[in-house]
Hints:
The structure holds 2 protein chains of 2 kinds.
Chain A: H1 3-14, H2 23-41, E1 45-51, E2 59-60, H3 62-65, E3 69-77, E4 82-86, H4 89-95, E5 108-112, E6 116-120, E7 129-136, H5 156-169, H6 173-195
Parallel strand pairs in A: 4-5
Antiparallel strand pairs in A: 1-7, 2-6, 3-4, 3-7, 5-6
Helix pairs in contact in A: 1-2, 1-5, 2-5, 5-6
Chain B: H1 5-15, H2 26-44, E1 48-53, E2 61-63, E3 68-76, E4 79-80, E5 82-83, H3 86-92, E6 100-101, E7 106-108, E8 116-120, E9 122-123, E10 137-143, H4 159-175, H5 183-206, E11 213-214, E12 217-218
Parallel strand pairs in B: 5-7, 6-9
Antiparallel strand pairs in B: 1-10, 2-8, 3-4, 3-10, 7-8, 11-12
Helix pairs in contact in B: 2-4, 4-5
Amino acid sequence: MNRGSIRAEVRRRLGENTVFWTDANIDTSINEGLEEIAEASEYYETSESESLVADQPVYNLKTLLDYDLLRITSIWNPQRTQWMYPTAPHLLGRLYRRWEAIKGQPEAYYVRGLWNLRPYPKAAQSSGTLTLDYVAIPPLLAADDAVPGFPEEFQYGLVEYALYDLLAQDQETAEALLHYVEYLKHESGLTQWARERGNRSGVVGAGY
Amino acid sequence: MPVTRQAFREQIEYQIADTANTFWSDLDLNAYIQEGYSLFIAQTQLFWDSAYLNDDADVAVVSLPADFWKVDRVTWDYQEISELTPRQLRAHDSQYKTLTSREILGYLVEQEAKNQLRKYPVPAQDCPTDDADPLNTRLDYYQRAPTLANDASTFACPDWCLKHIRNWVMYRVYSQKGEGQDLKLAQHFRERFDRGVLRTFRRLNRTDSERTGVLGGSATTARSIPTPKLPWQFGRIVRRF
């Protein structure tokens, strides 16, 4: 379904023409639903490269990753050809109290707040990059032929959310809340799909 | 793109069908917006920063940054130092308020005035250079939400956070006594706000606990060294017959 067909479905279910709810109203509600379902399910994954800077303990990712970042999922260090592992300051402190003074190729990381990434150890030289994999809010549907980037089975969740939002604005409370409950079912379905996209039943070399 | 307070308020006025401010004034809405913003940022710990509390000789109590909300870590010479309670300090050293030393071993926030921190011991000399010097007390902390002083002020959080703040405003708007009151909708938006806060907080803290897998084995995680223990018979009288 694209934005145009989602909007048409919303109009059909509302029994509305363009008199009361304009196309712009409905599109705003659809995009709000997309933002809500993307934040809850974390289905949209992407990646960026960050350059290493010598002696820099904390990297502020606000400029690099813009305002759509939800969280970092993993970081690849191409210099070491290894994934960095998530850690915490109290774990690093157990190994060596003055861990902040150590320099080298980063092998672990932790994040503070939304944007503040701290690799360990801090880079000794201003060369090399880190590849950051993260989940984010996807681009909103800007045209009628724009398609949400998740399976069509869950796209009716956007219809339900738009219905809920528009009816809540009209203070049709009971009906709005019924649509919200339906939306939540699609949200939880998409969340489960996003987490279990891979098949974990057979893992090479592991004794699970 | 950062959203201004005015644009955000106008979106809300459109949603509650009160663009003429018949039932809810701009003043009310601005107060609810600031309230929701402050609550959301404080509860999710979204904003974080680092500042140096420059060591000055014989000055133990320093002011914390104006946007301070909660301590994350305090370090001196690259080492994390512990928060102490007045009781611990009194038991350890009755002269903790006057004892001086080059090295800072701990800090105290509890008894001090709002937004002040006491270093222990009292610094014996000035730090070599202000700010980015390891021989200087550094504070990593979570920040409060900035004040939206006027309609041109912008939100410092991402756009996806604004719907959670809007949920709070809707809760307050529909709770307000008057013709526009709708307690069922108010409860619904309050639940949405609480769920959004919990989800955001858990997401931000999830990074610490995730494990990455490696084919053929699992990634090693940092292990703690064994805690030193005294011999079992320490302090006892052991008799062998």
